[in-house]
Amino acid sequence: MEHSGKRRIGRGVRANPAGRFERHGREAVDDGWDLIEDLPPLRTEVTEESARRVITRNTSPDISFDRSINPYRGCEHGCVYCFARPSHAYLGLSPGLDFETKLIARPNAAAVLEAELRRASYACDVIAIGTNTDAYQPIERDRQVMRGVLEVLQRFHHPVTIATKGTLIERDVDILADMAERGLARVGISVTTLQADLSRRMEPRVPAPARRLRTIEALAKAGVPVRVMISPIVPGLTDHELEGIINAARDAGAAAASMIPIRLPREVAALWEDWLAEHYPERVGRVMSKLRDMHGGKPYEAEFGKRMRGEGIWADLLQQRFTRAVRAAGLSEHLPSLRTDLFEVPLAQGDQLALF
Question: pTM to 2 decimals?
Fold first, then answer.
């Protein structure tokens, strides 16, 4: 089901296809009445979920962490390319417009996290935040779920790595600077393009690229290790900006850089091609042919070892350019490891102090 431009102001995609687990689809049709009806813009709806656990485990060989936290389901940023869109189907919602307009907050996340960290069986290792949906999306300004999670991690001296496009992270620089000083925190800021117009179309509710560069600067000045994440990079659309983004981030204070080509799992492929045809019709063939070349003739290959990099000539050229640009800019591809040896369970209310 597609929605008109007026309804979609500030939204990333124009379709709201039924999730893959739904038995029935939805389609807008003309009912035959001669009535002009302008429907209001789509509003963001937030419901609350009482989480039973918040630390999610994974065994993926493609990523460097085995646990993560997501304070929210869905993301108001509306990035058309977001690989997390298919996760909304598990909720009986669409990976399309529902993903960016029907959000779920987890207000008890901090309390549940504290209970999990207090378990005698818990073994400390780095927790990653922002790996699925962005913890610093606009609703965090009022909800402050992420702030509560950070306060718990700070009290437990627990290492955390954060990935975000949201400049709201500057609000929490007091906590992050304190943790970073002890080797407990680092941040990745995603910059997909330096073109404000392209960014507004592709990621409509994300702060402008120049504003994200200022966030890198603010964090770096506070002593928080920052890497720029050129993620995703789109062959035929944004890949020519690779060196420029790396240099701009270096000038802003980033210490490292990473890159991941665009990933189009499940429903995202159709949403992406529809967006591309709407905004850059002359580039559809060029972009999609390069993506297929990188993924064995398909828009996306989900196999471990291939999904994050692709393969073939275009993937190799991108990686070579990235490596050369990072070296020329004096950046690293990795930030220093975080400490896990400082983890300590603080006394809970009512606990007795140790005698010695």
Answer: 0.91
